[in-house]
Amino acid sequence: MPNATIGNIAKYMEELAPLAWAEAWDNVGLQVGDPDRPVQRIMVALEATDAVVDEAIAAEADLLVVHHPPIFKALKAIRFDTPVGGRLERLIRAGVGVYAAHTNLDQAPGGTNDALAALVGLTEFTVLHKVGEEPYMKLVVFVPRGHEDAVRGALAAAGAGHIGNYSHCTFQSPGTGTFLPLEGANPFLGEQGKLEHADELRLETILPESRVSGAVRAMIAAHPYEEVAYDLYPLANVGRPRGHGRIGRLAEPVTLGALAGRLKLALGLTQVTAVGNLDGIISTVAVGAGAGGDLVAHASRQGADVLITGDVKYHTAQDALDAGLSMIDIGHYHSERIVVGPLAACLRERVRQDGLSVAVVEAQAGTDPFRAV
């Protein structure tokens, strides 16, 4: 199997969470390392604490992928006798690169907020605070009759053809494709030197811009032709919303106290903090991974019964009560660490698709700095 490079993994991460989606004040992307350096083992963690750095070095990881950027504020010096400088020194000496996806991962499909919404059990959730739109593209491919379902299924699995609550959305129309296999060709249909007229279907679908690379790879892998003819068109349709937080409904209403207990059990916590009437009925839930107190107004306006987040401040809780909104504070760490597993799984699948020899492991050393006493 071919080897991967740090640059390959950075490309995969930027397909999932484009750098342009990060807030202006953020610092994301490759922070330590050479894009051309080979990668055989990746470790995924919430942040590069001393314990995680020790674990990455002991595991002989070549790249550490984290949510919280270790280089966040501008550094005027890299002093090895400081916590940040010391960690950077150890990582560099051990040859471990560092890639950070922060507020761009918060907005990304499958990112931190999607992971939290899934943990809570929300159905048909949408973006809570929209900050932009991801453009749509149209992909058109020409497929020999009888193979259209395989190609359609591959495209759907790669994120194409999803419109609202529907998947596998395509349009197909019949036609005739022509091609003349030249010397050296190994045609699925026809013979070298003879013009072939093939019964084909024009298959077209819609997809978000960030899904184009993966969808094209999946389409080509499922297509029987040696050379695949396809077109990509930019669309003027309203793009897919992107932004912070998510809002959706529970499968069945529960009380605030019961929902808090469910989260405590799911996250393995001894306590969480609730704001509001514990006997109040909760149906519509907003979530904001990390410090989501600034989402209170958005959650209230969109009819949420509760906002689940971390780092809730006193005055934020009072504002929520004034707005008739309950809150559950599960802590910054616990609201975000749940993305580590899905992100590692995504990278495993991505390197598998490209046939790269890379192991992806999840850090076990990450811990919440707060303790219940």
Give an overview in words.
This protein is of the alpha/beta class. It has three domains: 4-101 and 337-362, 3-Layer(aba) Sandwich (Udp-n-acetylmuramoylalanyl-d-glutamate--2,6- Diaminopimelate Ligase, Chain: A, domain 1); 112-131 and 244-330, 3-Layer(aba) Sandwich (Udp-n-acetylmuramoylalanyl-d-glutamate--2,6- Diaminopimelate Ligase, Chain: A, domain 1); 136-238, Alpha-Beta Plaits, CATH 3.30.70.120. The protein contains twelve helices and 17 strands. It has helices at 6-16, 50-58, 83-93, 103-107, 112-120, 148-157, 212-222, 256-267, 296-301, 314-322, 332-336, 340-353; strands at residues 4-5, 29-32, 38-39, 41-45, 63-66, 97-100, 122-134, 136-144, 170-179, 196-208, 230-234, 240-255, 273-275, 281-291, 306-310, 326-329, 359-362. The strands form four sheets. It has a six-stranded mixed sheet, sandwiched between helices. The radius of gyration is 24 Å and the shape is globular. The mean pLDDT is 95.
Quick gist of this model?
This protein is 30% helix and 31% strand. The protein has 373 residues and is of the alpha/beta class.
Q: Which helices and strands, and how do they pair?
A:
Layout: E1 4-5, H1 6-16, E2 29-32, E3 38-39, E4 41-45, H2 50-58, E5 63-66, H3 83-93, E6 97-100, H4 103-107, H5 112-120, E7 122-134, E8 136-144, H6 148-157, E9 170-179, E10 196-208, H7 212-222, E11 230-234, E12 240-255, H8 256-267, E13 273-275, E14 281-291, H9 296-301, E15 306-310, H10 314-322, E16 326-329, H11 332-336, H12 340-353, E17 359-362
Parallel strand pairs: 4-5, 4-17, 5-6, 14-15, 15-16
Antiparallel strand pairs: 1-3, 2-6, 7-12, 8-10, 8-11, 9-10, 12-14, 13-16
